[in-house]
Specification:
By secondary structure, this protein is mostly helical. It is built from 16 helices and 7 strands.
């Protein structure tokens, strides 16, 4: 192992720096793995793979973990993660988030104040729900520590008569918690002490609303899910894909069957996308027929999923209350673009019989 420690930065942009001061950026799931081990301590492989690859069979997920650790060892030349069934970080790794936590535990607020940035900043894990929940809780805890440190530091600096520095800490407190009553009280006192003026009536009114809990919750725009921004790649269906392509080229009927959740709709959807090829295809009746068949299969599956989800979530009234019923109606419009199901079946049937597709 290297004599000099490695440094892992989890606060702000994740970075890994070696003894030679060379810095690398761990990929998303490796960053999450390192954060889990740093903040949770020694952790069983079974828990790690469940958090990082929730939709993957355990054997395959464990293999993913082995490959990830092997790549980390190969890239760094150091045993930064070790252990058998119970994994932990190596002793050569210094982690900023752990030092920040230790400073908070010891009440060293001036030290804690020097740490900044969000935990795993810029990284999202909405494809790993349990991991996403863990990270949200850890980020909230880190914000609470920073709020507490800024508040304690502002009070200490005021007691020492260092008002400019105290005002700077109060601004940090407001950035972290815009509804902090303590911060507004400090600003009010600062104005009176330094300028001999009272805050504007609007500011006092805002403070009163904060104290009474009257402020409406801020509207936070919802980001698109990661699976939408970066759709998963279709893997493990090469044989089925080849059979579908061969049947399509031979003009045969294609029938897709399998267990629920096996990926039948996804296979049909990817096949439709491949045939449409971003509209760069020969506009023949046969080609249009193949695309329409796949569109009907996919829209039917999506509608069935939405209706079942609606039923499980509480019915139309629940969705109406949360403004989501419109999305359900949009999904129900899918079969009519460009042909309803029955019209598409008639189109396909006439073509299969050698007749003109449109009578």
């Amino acid at each position: 192992m290297n004599a000099l420690p490695w440094h892992l930065g989890l606060l702000g942009t994740v970075r890994l720096r070696g003894p030679d001061s060379r810095e690398t950026r761990p990929e998303r799931k490796l960053a999450a793995l390192l954060a889990l081990l740093a903040l949770e301590g020694p952790t069983h492989r079974s828990r790690l793979v469940g958090l990082l690859w929730p939709e993957t069979r355990e054997a395959a997920a464990r293999n993913n973990l082995v490959q990830m650790l092997r790549k980390l060892r190969s890239a760094t030349g150091a045993d930064l993660v070790g252990g058998g069934e119970l994994l932990s970080l190596g002793s050569a790794l210094d982690v900023d988030a752990r030092r920040a936590r230790d400073a908070c535990t010891r009440g060293e607020f001036a030290t804690l104040h020097r740490f900044g940035g969000e935990l795993l900043a810029g990284l999202r894990y909405d494809d790993c729900p349990d991991l996403d929940d863990w990270l949200l809780a850890e980020r909230e805890r880190w914000t609470e520590w920073r709020v507490g440190a800024a508040r304690e530091e502002a009070a200490r600096l005021e007691r020492e008569g260092r008002y400019d520095e105290a005002a700077a800490r109060t601004r940090v407190l407001l950035d972290l918690n815009p509804l902090s009553e303590d911060a507004y009280r400090r600003c009010e006192a600062f104005l009176r002490r330094e300028s001999g003026v009272d805050p504007l009536p609007e500011t006092l009114s805002l403070l009163a609303d904060i104290e009474r809990g009257r402020l409406p919750a801020p509207v936070v725009p919802q980001a698109l899910p990661l699976a939408t921004l970066r759709p998963p790649t279709l893997v493990g269906r090469e044989r089925e894909w080849a059979r579908m392509e061969a049947a399509w080229q031979a003009g045969q009927v294609i029938f897709i069957c399998g267990e629920p959740g096996a990926g039948k709709t996804r296979l049909a959807l990817e096949s439709m996308f491949a045939l449409s090829n971003d509209s760069a295809f020969e506009p023949t009746v046969e080609h249009a027929d193949a695309i329409l068949i796949r569109k009907t299969l996919c829209s039917g599956a999506v509608i069935g999923t939405v209706e079942k989800s609606l039923e499980v979530a509480g019915g139309p009234d629940f969705y109406r209350a949360f403004g989501l019923e419109r999305l359900v109606r949009d999904v129900h419009g899918a079969p009519f673009h460009p042909l309803p199901e029955k019209a598409q079946q008639l189109f396909t049937g006439r073509l299969a019989l050698g007749l003109e597709p449109v009578a």
